[in-house]
Amino acid sequence: MNKTVNQKAWFLVLPVLVLVAFSAVIPLMTVVNYSVQDTFGNNVFFWAGLEWFEEMLSSDRMWDALGRQIAFSAIILAIEIPLGIFVALNMPKSGFWASFCLVLMSLPLLIPWNVVGTIWQIFGRVDIGLLGYTLDAIGINYNYTQDFYAAWATVIVMDVWHWTSLVALLAYAGLQSIPDAYYQAAKIDQASRWKVFRYIELPKMMGVLMIAILLRFMDSFMIYTEPFVVTGGGPGNSTTFLSIDLVKMALGQFDLGPAAAFSIMYYLVILLISWVFYTVMTNLDKRDGV
């Protein structure tokens, strides 16, 4: 008996495929085209091959920006993941205050990125900003426009303030899925608070934590608006991350070929590290589930 295959579902998927083609595939092909050619204007191109890729791989500028980017993402993950878990563990489980905390935690996520940068730019100013003025008043030399450590501290604290709530909300959702019977059994066995967290809560949160780590890594590795608004990549190049350096190269210097090669390598690095994160976390989840 022949099985009838219904292909009508493709008509429902077609609009999505067209949208993805216009918003992702076609721009990507344009970037690839620029990465292997050179131009002097007037829409005249010359074949350059892998010249721009070789130039970028031998560029200290790109490797320095990559080092700053990796350091920033590592610091962000090291702070936001444990802090988000801690906040989720201490949030009310039900009732009015649970709803209140959920709304409160969601507020930073609703603020646009450029507004977040503007808020912290003003907040950290010594002359009119509450943070900058207070630190200056108590004798702490704080100026994120001139001091390397102050600029990094400002950018990191700003990102932690903006995105820790995302990790907390995801971890809270994982905690809410744990049946009360698990806690009752742990109470009967007189399990310590650490053991309850280690053997009950953490395994149940691993799935959402994997999502949180992937989202926060990808977003922190592509961060642009907030540090650009606050520090402009300075002082010097201390907060010039990969995205800021790429924009300066493409729009500021109009080096389209090197910028296109830079962006493709940037994309591949994000894809590779995200795949490594996903593979490691998936294997850990399977091992814990055995």
Automatic annotation (TrEMBL):
The chain crosses the membrane at residues 12-36, 70-89, 96-123, 149-175, 196-218, 259-278. Residues 66-277 form the ABC transmembrane type-1 domain. It is a multi-pass membrane protein. Keywords: Membrane, Transmembrane, Transmembrane helix, Transport. InterPro entries: MetI-like (IPR000515), MetI-like_sf (IPR035906), Sugar_ABC_transporter (IPR052730). The keyword Transport applies. SUPFAM superfamilies: MetI-like (SSF161098). The keyword Nucleotidyltransferase does not apply. It is found in: Cell membrane. PROSITE patterns: ABC_TM1. Belongs to the binding-protein-dependent transport system permease family. This is ABC transporter permease. The lineage of its organism: Bacteria, Pseudomonadati, Pseudomonadota, Alphaproteobacteria, Rhodobacterales.
